[in-house]
Design goal:
By secondary structure, this protein is α/β, with parallel strands linked by helices. It has 15 helices and 19 strands. The protein binds nicotinamide-adenine-dinucleotide.
Length: 433
Amino acid sequence: MRAMDAHTNDRKPDLTKCDILIDGSWQPSLEGRTIPAASPSDGEVFSYIQDSDSPDIDAAVSAARRAFEDGPWARMSATERGRLLLKSAQIVADQSEELAALEAQDTGKPMTQARNDISAAMRYLEYYGGAADKVHGETIPFLPTHGVQTIREPLGVTAHITPWNYPAQMFGRTLAPALAMGNAVVLKPAEDACMTPLRLAAILQQAGFPPGSLNVVTGAGETAGAALSRHPGIDFVSFTGSPEVGSAVQAAAAANHVACTLELGGKSPQIVFDDCNLDDAVPAIVNAIIQNSGQTCSAGSRVLVQNQAFDRIVDELAARFCKLVAAPHYEDRDLGPLISDRQLRRVHRYLDASENPDPVAQGVVASSAPPGGHYVAPTLYAPVDQALAIAHEEVFGPVLCCMPFETEEEAIRIANGTDYGLVSAVWTRDGGR
Ligand code: NAD
């Protein structure tokens, strides 16, 4: 696996790509401030991104408005927009190994995960490329003298604020549908990891997206992100990140009377009934919490197990947790480091709470992990009282809590006993459940 290290080092990111993209031109931020980009695997700075502010956001929103109202983007047919997305997907596929290496270096995630993420980003471009010219309105029977039809139209200038956990996937997921419909977009990726969004923007530009249709402005959330979310020139906001910032973004959008979508956190339960096939369930349950080191909004961070199966499930999970290894991205082990020192401190606040029971099992941090990286050993708790913070708050780390239940009603009550609702899984052979 060390060969991957050499591979990654062969492909140092091109620093010139860390400018921002406004109106088809790559440029530094107007005030010229930068933010260092360090790899979570070793804490070493490997590049710099622009620390943009309100004037850059103004320029990006104006460019998007011009593109939306006039110029090649405004005149492009849905079929042509779809072709550009499909062409972009092909370039992503051609450059996937290089993009995966960059994603792994920037986020610390193991190379296998980074490859999956680039593949997912590519599929978003491909899917919405195919969908672009298949968005139809309806004809509605109304009165003999009146025909009614609905027409689906772009919103206009759309703002996209994305998190650091899946930068490439988020790029594809939020921008591909907006572009397929003909919106002009302004993306503000997370300052903790935005290398692949910048590269992907360059790929879309190469595929032929015209100036102003796609603008990418990096920078801190409190400045660049806040300026974008409250900008009067935008028509829609898409936000993924923390509930606290989501509330602020929603309030800013409401002040401008524009719609927004929020994807916030989760404390997603895996509900395991005693009739399930344990051989299927256990590895999937482990993967659902260690993927991306637990920094996934849909991470399966709680396991609710029916009493009769509880000890067996916990024993099997413990046996697997003991063998888990957190290591630098280039070693491609079970999990990588957390994104930042801030995130590491957050996870430790949960792990170090005096109210916690002793862990049932813990993995290890590889001895090869550089001291500057942000590593935490995956940790399993069982049984855990639902009242404890680790059991009902989003930790956003590789921390799994097991809780027993007896009846379906009790399982549902525990599953719904958090402020979150994102995804859940049910493990049973009984389809009626
Ligand atoms: P965050 O909400 O602070 O950041 C998400 C995005 O919002 C980033 O692009 C950031 O720059 C921007 N932002 C920050 N402050 C802003 C503001 N005032 N106005 C507009 N934009 C702003 O999230 P984080 O600090 O990166 O992570 C903190 C917590 O958020 C995590 O521990 C986790 O609970 C949650 N989170 C959830 C997801 C998810 O996929 N749902 C992803 C990342 C983080």
